[in-house]
């Protein structure tokens, strides 16, 4: 159970900087630029060598990533909206374009370049993804207000 408020903090994504990461064919991060590391709240060293799902946010429906992988494995470009989880538990929204890196006509890696999205778009996509998760995975996102003593009881049960 996440009992910290950190998860409600949104990080603003800069308008005028490229936000880039690259992975090998299995999704392990091979490169991040400083902007990507900054937004994620990690040092570049902490990201390189890790699977990209390190920053997966629990609000993301599984089918979005199934679709991403099917698309890029065919050699096509995937475009979509992604909510990522920061190291501190917060989040940020981006529009991502994921594609294959070609060197001398040979596929070498995958890369993702991201850009910020509007507040209205983030709300629209949050609703869409909430509905997708409810339908596809049977999970519902809830925000709960409970008395402190009940919270302590719940925490004690977890330990
Ligand atoms: C180039 C590239 C960039 C990716 N960027 C992200 C990302 O920013 N956030 C994310 O959650 N998944 C990203 N993914 C997808 C992850 O590899 C992974 O499929 C996803 O986090 C879901 O995790 P799972 O496949 O273990 O369920 C990216 C994949 C590739 C190939």
Q: What are the defining features of this structure?
A:
single chain, 159 residues, alpha+beta, Beta-Lactamase, five-stranded antiparallel sheet, 33% helix, 25% strand, binds flavin mononucleotide
Explained architecture:
The chain has 159 residues and is α+β, with helices and mostly antiparallel strands. The chain has a single domain (5-158), classed as Beta-Lactamase, CATH 3.30.450. It is 33% helix and 25% strand. It is built from five helices and five strands. It has helices at residues 34-40, 44-47, 62-73, 119-137, 148-158, and strands at 19-23, 29-32, 78-85, 91-103, 106-115. A five-stranded antiparallel beta sheet has the order 2-1-5-4-3. The radius of gyration is 17 Å and the shape is globular. The relative contact order is 0.18. The structure holds flavin mononucleotide. Flavin mononucleotide is lined by residues 21, 23, 27, 52-53, 55-56, 60, 65, 68, 82, 84, 98, 110-112.
